[in-house]
Amino acid sequence: MLGLWWIASARGWLPEQILPAPAYVYQTGRDMILSGELLYHTGVSLGRVLVGFTIGAGLGLVLGIAMGLSETVEDYVKPLFLAFAQIPTLGWIPLLMLLVGIEETLKIIIIAKGAIVPMTMNTLTGIRGVSPKYIEVGRALRFSRWQMLRLVVLPGAVPSIFTGIRYGLTHSWTSLVGVELLASSEGLGYLLVWGRQMFWLDTVIVAMIAIGLVGLIMDKGLDRTELLIQRWKRQER
């Protein structure tokens, strides 16, 4: 893709206003880093994701555990939750704009919604996938409900829970960019809109690269953390 981009700009297949040269985009990105502009907007977006994802993932973990441990809770909650999950995250924005405005609350809710669905479903799947033999051992040892959850259920569900964290973080990040495109004066999504409005396509491409790199770093970081936890579990056994 980089080679095709370089050839297209060098041979003038598209006007420079539409497809700036890689060297020009690199210079723009360098200037934005040195000035602190790109780092500032990246920090704003990361801060929003941290708050929204923590809320959404926490609620999803609790909801997944509740449904996983109680079939009654699952029977009452899961149908409505699945209906809620079918509505795309960005589809909630028009209604939420009327209810909470376009400030930070809107962004946090949208980010949290992006995290809660994969976190809930993967936690539920992980808990239901714990071997019944482990449950029987816990009952034989007369574990309390809290001990059963802490020593048997959650450790057995860790791989699935981490899958939920990874998908939840990915959904939160893309949801953040989407809501920043529509209602924000700061953040990487805002940079995309601002660059498009000013017809500074070099700024748009720099923001796109930053969004992709940050998402990749977060995903690889979680992947590394999961491997370390799995290694620790194997050593413990």
Structure explained in plain terms:
This protein is mostly helical. The protein has a single domain, classed as MetI-like fold (Orthogonal Bundle). The chain has ten helices and no strands. It has helices spanning 2-10, 22-35, 37-69, 71-86, 93-100, 104-128, 132-140, 145-182, 188-197, 201-236. The protein is elongated and about 75 Å long. The model has no long low-confidence stretch (mean pLDDT 85). Belongs to the binding-protein-dependent transport system permease family. The chain crosses the membrane at residues 49-69, 81-102, 108-127, 148-169, 198-218. This is ABC transporter permease subunit. Keywords: Cell membrane, Membrane, Transmembrane, Transmembrane helix, Transport. Pfam families: BPD_transp_1.
Describe the structure in brief.
The longest helix has 38 residues, at 145-182. With 237 residues, the protein is mainly α.
Q: Note the run of SSEs as H and E.
A: HHHHHHHHHH
Average pLDDT over all residues: 85
Shape: elongated
The CATH superfamily turns out to be MetI-like
The CATH architecture is Orthogonal Bundle
Strand content: under 5%
**How many strand units?**
0
Instruction: List the uncertain runs.
Output: none
| CATH structural class | Mainly Alpha
Rg from Cα: 22 Å
- Structural class given helices, strands, pairing? mainly alpha
Number of contiguous helices: 10
According to CATH, the fold-level topology is MetI-like fold
End-to-end CA span: 46 Å
Largest sheet: none
Helix content: over 70%
**How many structurally independent domains?**
1
